[in-house]
Amino acid sequence: MDDVLETTINTLAVGGLYALIALGYTLVYGILRFINFAHSDVVAWGGWLALSIAGVFGWTAAGGAPAIAVPVVLVLTMAVCAAMGVTIERLAYRPLRKAPRLNVLITAIGVSLLLQNVGILDGVFGNKPDTIRPLLANSVLGEVGAVQLRLYDLMTIAVTIALVVGLERLVYGTRMGRAMRAVSHDERTAALMGIDVNRVITVTFAIGSALAAAGGILFALRNDLRLTADASWVLLGLKAFVAAVVGGIGNVRGAAAGALLIAFVEVFVHRYVGAVFADKPWVSQLQDIYVFGILILVLLFKPSGLLGKAAVEKV
Amino acid sequence: MSDRAGKTLSERVGALRPNPVVNTGLSLAPFVVAFALAMVVDTVVGPLVGATWTEILLDVGIAILLAGSLNVVNGYAGQFSLGHAGFMLLGGYAAAWLTFYGSMKFFGTWEPVGGFLGSGQLLFLGGCMLGGLVAAVFGVVVGLPSLRLRGDYLAIVTLGFGEIARVLGQITARQPKNVEQVAERSWWDLADNLGGAEGFSQIPNYTRLFFVYLFVFILLILAYRLKYSSKGRALLAVRENEIAAEAMGIDTTRAKVSAFVMSAFFAGIGGALYAHRVGVLKPTELGFQKSIDLVIIVVIGGMGSITGVVLGAAILVILPELFREFSEYRMIAYALALVAVMLLRPQGIMGVKELWETSWWRKGVARLRGGKRGGA
């Protein structure tokens, strides 16, 4: 029982992380219909920028960070990354608004490579791994049975719930949200109704990148900061993207649901299937295969995703 | 009318059929031509340019093979694939399995043996074919989902396939490296021993200009003949508008799957050549990033243009070589160039045209002809 509880908490923490990143993919896809490959690099930059910002305040030494450190760094990094996302959209994607989507995709890959390789320059973040773990004393808040409730896990879950609920309110409860949904539904008609499409896209990128920054920080608090050019960021982005697709891309609730499903498969199934086949050690290395296998199955049987609406094809 | 009268229907139909001897000869022509051209590259161009450029030419050839094969599915049929490195990996593994364990079993060493087209190189050619065939089988497997999915969703499925291939490669078992261990186990038994995450190493270094350019020329000739055949036009029609193509009587399913199979076959061969060039086949190096690299070559060269892909592959392999000393800034320049090309010339270097279809080429030819006429 303790084991199940521990795995559940783990699933929620990992799922929250994926959800934050998946939302960025899903928002951009919903409005511009292209896969923003540079998103995972904004996540990576979020983690590293958090380190730089913490450095400015002198919070990088072990034990030197006050309790307020994480919220302050989180908010500042999200703001910086939002500005970064808006700039990328303005410079690289907006000129291609009318171009074939494959071109936008290649441009996104170009931006991604740029961010990766600028990040490892000496003057930027450097080419040695680092860590922002000192920001958060990983204290145990309490125990349920034999299971420790760690601050990190609970914080991840809390931050995710707060941001996802906030986003949900924004998309379904404000004028801006209605404009976003209108542009996603039909850009031309939305523009005819007096919606400033460019402004909506700017806001979308700002929100997506801010959420990516939050995801990057939470990821970096759990794992060490790998180089911005490291493949692990791309894999993290890919999994979050898979979550967005599985949930139904373009759908906010879908992204959260997909993220939970992917995390469930990765953590839960991995934990228990691995235990059943304990004599075959390679079974425990299959978690990436489960994730991409689910992706292929969902796409084959319900291409619009679990919560997505089937698109009617017009001739 | 009069000479029809004496013949039966079957005789008349028979007369319309092309001569089987001539026909077979014409079908074999691309392979003969490719063989001759590859000999020229190997014996004349190779020694002429020296060792460093021979190495670069090898990389260029492999890049042409891989990007050219991707061009069939991506440029012709318009099916966006992000998992091409997966085919490469499968082909590389199949070929490395045959040549490494074959060398150990037959020759008792993993080093290359035999001279030109000797036993070792024949084993290697068999490996290339096996690699191509294994990849082609998976081409069917990946091509089938394309019947249900379009555009981005297909791209995502191919991406998933590529990642699964990579992970499967990473969990394969250890590779036995001495002759006795290999000899006492059967071929089938060794099929799982592909080196895992450390990679399949000690792959005999058989890749040389001849083999690379043999397959490059075969691919280029086949791609050229495909583009201007009814089958190729069917693919182009699917790319432009699938519903309209279907209404015109094109079997879109068949067209798409056959494009995937042909593409996968040559990607598998490309993977085999790559494996026997670098000597170590690491699954992590043939992941998502490699697939992206290949897509970039196709898009920069011009989707659907054979000469464009050749140019794109040459430029994208040679330029980074030239700027090797600026290693830190090389990738930044590459990324900026990528964005710049997409902003300034979104259709790629060649667009959908071939070299001989561009206006400046035609003008040049016209001037040459005009000049000759003036002189005569």
Structure notes:
The complex is a heterodimer of chains A (315) and B (376). Chain A has 315 residues and is mainly alpha-helical. Chain A has a domain at 19-233. Chain A has eleven helices and two strands; from the N terminus they run H-H-H-H-E-E-H-H-H-H-H-H-H. In chain B, helix 4 runs antiparallel to helix 5 (119-143). Chain B is globular. Chain B has one domain: ABC transporter involved in vitamin B12 uptake, BtuC (Orthogonal Bundle). Chain B is mostly helical. The A-B interface holds A 33-35, 92, 95-96, 99-104, 106-107, 109-114, 116-118, 120-121, 229, 231, 234, 238, 241-242, 245, 282, 285-286, 288-289, 292-293, 295-296, 299-300, 303, 313, 315 and B 80, 145, 148-149, 151-153, 155-157, 159-161, 163-164, 167-168, 170-171, 173, 243, 284, 287-289, 292, 295-296, 299, 303, 328, 331-332, 334-336, 338-339, 342-343, 346.
Query: Tell me about the biggest sheet of chain B?
Result: none
Q: Kindly state the number of beta strands of chain A.
A: 2
Give the proportion of residues in helices of chain B: over 70%
What is the string of SSEs of chain A from the N terminus onward?
HHHHEEHHHHHHH
What percent strand of chain A? under 5%
Assign the structural class of chain B, choosing from mainly alpha, mainly beta, alpha/beta, alpha+beta, or little secondary structure: mainly alpha
Q: Strand portion of chain B, in percent?
A: under 5%
Q: End-to-end distance of chain A, in Å?
A: 55 Å
CATH architecture of chain B: Orthogonal Bundle
Q: How many domains comprise the coordinates of chain B?
A: 1
Say how many strands of chain B there are. 0
Gyration radius of chain A, rounded:
20 Å
State the oligomer. Answer: heterodimer
| Biggest sheet character of chain A | 2 strands, antiparallel
- Provide the CATH topology of chain B: ABC transporter involved in vitamin B12 uptake, BtuC
Form type of chain B = globular
Largest interface by residue count? A-B, 46 and 41 residues
Structural class of chain A: mainly alpha
Estimate the mean pLDDT confidence of chain A.
86
Shape of chain A: globular
